[in-house]
Write a structure and sequence with these properties.
Protein name: Exported protein
Order of helices and strands: HEEHHHHH
Structural class: mainly alpha
Strand order of the largest sheet: 1-2
Number of helices: 6
Radius of gyration: 46 Å
Number of strands: 2
Largest sheet: 2 strands, antiparallel
Distance between the termini: 86 Å
Length: 183
């Protein structure tokens, strides 16, 4: 047999199976039972209670209760959300007597927030602005130090040049006025 004939036969069989499946589905829908055939349901039994969407409302199944028995819990929750004055006063008195209360309350005069950091943090480093050169000819020493930086190795050169530029250009307010002090 040739491959074409095999392929044509398979396609033809798939089409016949599809049509047969559609016909069988239509027959099953037409001959479906209209009512469930339940053995323990009689005509006299009341119909189930339906909800607003038309679905039957089922009873809640029994479950373990807090007292250890099995049953359906009662759904009567009435929560009183108001705090009684006596319990509020009792809570405030307990907070006043708590030794950790000053640490928690930021408004307390002995609070950690109001005391500052104390000895927990090191003192900040003092800021010393660069000192201006005493002589008016600072550019010569600036160029000499830059030349010394350019003789260093590649990894040290950039750090040295930026340090020298910051020392001389900032101290003499020369940023943007001298060719080596460009931003």
């Amino acid at each position: 047999m040739s491959w074409r004939l095999l392929f044509f036969t398979l396609v033809l069989l798939a089409g016949v199976a599809t049509l047969a499946g559609l016909q069988a589905g239509d027959w099953l829908v037409a001959h479906a039972p209209t009512q469930a055939n339940l053995k323990n349901l009689a005509e006299e039994d009341p119909s189930p209670v339906l909800g607003p969407d038309g679905t039957p409302i089922l009873k809640e199944p029994p479950q373990p209760l807090m007292n250890g028995s099995i049953g359906v819990p009662q759904r009567s929750y009435t929560a009183d959300w108001a705090i009684k004055k006596s319990s509020a006063d009792q809570m405030l008195n307990q907070l006043k007597n708590d030794p950790l209360a000053p640490l928690i309350d930021p408004n307390s005069p002995s609070s950690v927030y109001s005391q500052g950091a104390g000895d927990n943090f090191p003192a900040p480093a003092p800021f010393t602005p660069p000192v201006a050169q005493e002589s008016g000819n600072w550019e010569d020493s600036f160029q000499a130090e830059l030349a010394a930086c350019r003789k260093l190795k590649f990894g040290q050169r950039g750090e040295c040049v930026s340090r020298v530029r910051n020392n001389y250009c900032t101290a003499n307010n020369a940023w943007g006025t001298v060719s080596e002090c460009e931003r």
